[in-house]
Write a structure and sequence with these properties.
With about 290 residues, the protein is an all-alpha fold. It is about 80% helix and about 0% strand. Helix 3 packs antiparallel against helix 9, helix 5 packs antiparallel against helix 7 and helix 5 runs parallel beside helix 8. It is globular, with a radius of gyration of 18 Å. The C terminus is likely disordered.
């Protein structure tokens, strides 16, 4: 009895989707549990210890260093730094909407570098997801800052390029080593900026320690293993559009835990985002690279 391509595609999609859903909880954990005004320190403590734990588990040393360093700079170090610059200079909604262009950038990379012309269904679904994000998150008082906008767009370009290249370059490198080295190298790239720009941490209570532990073990070690597993199994656009689940999860947690209001416009935006994610997965089910 043969299994349909869609059914074979479903499990990798569902497991990979857990990563952006976990990342969507970062805002809640950061604002409710962590010390204020230390975003680079939070990024460093999330990535570097998680990477070291994965390397201890994998014990893999023979890897392609130049490529891995570039991937670490794109997926971890550069992306995290630009993400926090955008978060500080822009309203969260505007930053998230600008970041939602990532699936369109991946389509453009696949077209320009691999000659894969975008399927109209995937293109339409990505544009629909972008419109849904705007409805869900943008408000009339959203202010524009040119440096924040540039950082948000550059961050989206970093992650899109890193996602695209990671699929090309993983090869036979074991998943834990591939993920762990990127987290370690990305964390080391963040280390000088964190030491220079942010003061030493105050004495931490149990809530802050629990928050950092969650970001490290779940938000980095688990989530990035799932994400890079998806990189190897899913078409790049199908993978990148799953990133839209992260702000959607953040909005839902804000409503459930913090009592933040959900307007009708936001609910319509959520529906459009979910519809676009599902549409891209259906359109991509027949494109998966055979293994």
């Amino acid at each position: 009895m043969t299994t349909s391509p869609l059914r074979q595609f479903a499990l990798p999609v569902l497991l990979t989707a857990l990563a952006p859903l976990i990342w969507g909880s970062t805002y809640l954990v950061t604002t409710e549990l962590l010390p204020a005004d230390r975003p680079l320190t939070a990024a460093l403590l999330r990535t570097l210890p998680a990477g070291l734990l994965l390397l201890l588990a994998s014990r893999q040393r023979d890897i392609g260093w130049p490529r891995l360093l570039l991937l670490a700079a794109l997926n971890i170090g550069g992306f995290q730094a630009l993400l926090f610059i955008a978060a500080y200079r822009l309203p969260g909604g505007l930053a998230a909407v600008l970041g939602a262009i990532q699936p369109l950038l991946v389509l453009g990379l696949a077209w320009s570098m691999d000659g894969q012309r975008p399927h109209w269904q995937a293109l339409l679904a990505c544009c629909t997801g972008l419109a849904g994000m705007a409805l869900m998150l943008l408000t009339p008082d959203s202010r524009a800052d040119q440096y924040g906008i540039a950082a948000a767009l550059a961050g989206a370009a970093c992650m899109a390029t890193g996602t695209f290249l990671a699929r090309r370059w993983q090869g036979a490198t074991p998943l834990l080593a591939y993920t762990g080295w990127q987290l370690v190298l990305g964390g080391l790239l963040l280390l000088p900026a964190a030491l220079w720009l942010e003061p030493a941490l105050p004495r931490l209570g149990w809530p802050a320690l629990a928050g950092y532990a969650y970001l490290c073990l779940c938000g980095a070690a688990l989530a990035y293993v799932l994400w890079f597993r998806g990189v190897a199994l899913l078409p790049p656009v199908a993978l990148s559009v799953l990133g839209l689940l992260s702000p959607l999860c953040a909005v839902l947690l804000g409503w459930l835990v913090l009592g933040q209001a959900l307007r009708g416009q936001a609910l319509l935006g959520m529906a459009l985002v979910l519809a676009s994610i599902v549409a891209v997965q259906f359109a991509s089910a027949g494109w998966r690279k055979p293994h």
